[in-house]
Amino acid sequence: MSPRAGLLQSQGSAKQAVVRPARNPVCRAVNRSGAGVLRQAAPAGRSVVSRPDRPTEAPRLPLLQPVCYKEGEAESNGEQTENRVIVITSGKGGVGKTTASANLGMSIARLGYKVALVDADIGLRNLDLLLGLENRVLYTAIDILDGECRLDQALIRDKRWKNLSLLSISRNRQRYNITRKHMEQLVESIQSLGYQFVLIDCPAGIDVGFINAISPAKEALIVTTPEITSIRDADRVAGLLEANNIYNTKLLVNRVRPDMIQKNDMMSVRDVQEMLGIPLLGAIPEDQQVIISTNRGEPLVLQKKLSLSGIAFENAARRLIGKQDYFIDLNTPYKGVFQKLGEMFTSS
Ligand code: ADP
Ligand code: MG
């Protein structure tokens, strides 16, 4: 049984979840109480889903040391780099899905790929705001389905990077009538226009909006913060993704506070990753620049002088396309590798 299944089930594997090494008091508290909450949440025998493909051991996390290898190696080990449909999801709201969608999408576009961002957050869309495209959303996917416009009219091209486009599923007060089939057809049509990456920004929750958003996806990126509430929701979502045949899942840990980790007031990225047992794509620090960039409608990765979070998003994007070169050490961001990286990016 996998470590994650152990976290969710109330029988048999309980020991496995509890004996997991705790490196700090916060994590210990989680193992005592939080993991218990997780297990209680899924009654005996009703893990969210049986997970046949789950690795038997959480992948080891090379986070604390930078891993350097040549790009060629990374590509040959790595992911297919086109026709990828990735849903960015979390369960819990407000953990950074839209921020991640905007920054990863922009980063991948800057790396030369044709990227479509789909804002599937019906009723509460805001990806257009983060990209500074809000005044250009004239049509949405619902207008396409109603026959009022063509797909290319609803796909808004970013003026800064023309290989990045945004499709909003609905305007905030538009009536809701999207189905899974509609989502699948929309994504297929987007791909037929030559888009190599389709990133779907998923709404919070696990209701019909979530099911619609994940239905065209072959892969998922689960965003969580290092808080037990967010981790529990991420765990639940991972199970639901597998129940819907999405097994290629990666983890993005957002709003990491290295100062709090050092004081043992926050779980480390490694703790979070081990609790969830999902391969890590990246970790993003808590950074006020995120708020500034949201208000400006300019993704962090476009800033001339990259902030720490901007560098972390660039790093995650490179890993997502298989050009993985290193993990950033957020536990000591102002010393060593992270600082050197910052200098390297900002001095150019
Ligand atoms: P979601 O799409 O999951 O609801 P958002 O991306 O809209 O989450 O982010 C929620 C709020 O958190 C926003 O106000 C955003 O600016 C803020 N936020 C997200 N990530 C960070 C971060 N790394 N540092 C600081 N603030 C962040
Ligand atoms: Mg959002």
Automatic annotation (TrEMBL):
Gene Ontology biological process terms in this record: negative regulation of cell division
Stored InterPro entries: MinD (IPR010223), P-loop_NTPase (IPR027417), ParA/MinD_ATPase (IPR050625), YlxH/NBP35 (IPR033756)
Superkingdom field: Eukaryota
Keywords per UniProt: ATP-binding, Cell cycle, Cell division, Nucleotide-binding, Septation
Gene Ontology CC annotation, any one: cytosol
Family: Belongs to the ParA family. MinD subfamily.
Function statement: ATPase required for the correct placement of the division site.
Name by which UniProt lists this protein: Putative septum site-determining protein MinD
Source species: Tetradesmus obliquus
